[in-house]
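Ticket #4471: structure output looks truncated?

Reporter: J.K.
Steps to reproduce: submitted the chain below (66 residues) through the standard prediction queue, then opened the result file.
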Amino acid sequence: MQRAGTRVRAFAAAAVAGEEGQSTAEYAIGTIAAAAFGAVLYTVVTGDSIVNALTQIIDKALKTSV
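Returned output as attached by the reporter:
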């Protein structure tokens, strides 16, 4: 069983080797993607069709008798 653990550790060490500096680039790409998604979402949500749809839903909910 100890041999399997040694192999797993060796494989993990080999997989991690050479990946230094990758996390910074990955964070940068992730940040840019999140900002782009936020911009698209903001544009969609602040559009007239979404505002009108939400207003109609709220009006309908307030006019409902219980």
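Triage note (M.O.): checked the attachment and the full token line is present. The chain is about 85% helix and 0% strand.
Status: closed, working as intended.
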